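Ticket #4471: structure output looks truncated?

Reporter: J.K.
Steps to reproduce: submitted the chain below (58 residues) through the standard prediction queue, then opened the result file.
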Amino acid sequence: MTNDFDFLKSSYSSGSGECVEVARNIPGTIAVRDSKTPDSPILRLTPTTWTKFTATLH
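Returned output as attached by the reporter:
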C-alpha cells in the first residue's frame, strides 16, 4: 500500500532534510512520513485528526 500514496513535501521545507511528507490522495486517510527515511513506517491519520493536529501548529 505504500506505493499507493502520493507523498508531497511541504513548500515550507528548508531543504535541510528535516521535513515530513504528506499524502492526501487516499480517501479517508492522511499519510505522513519522514522525508529522510521514506521506507520507515507511515503514520496514517483520519482527516479529522489531521485537521486537529495542524490547528495546533498555528
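Triage note (M.O.): checked the attachment and the full C-alpha cell line is present. The chain has one helix and four strands.
Status: closed, working as intended.
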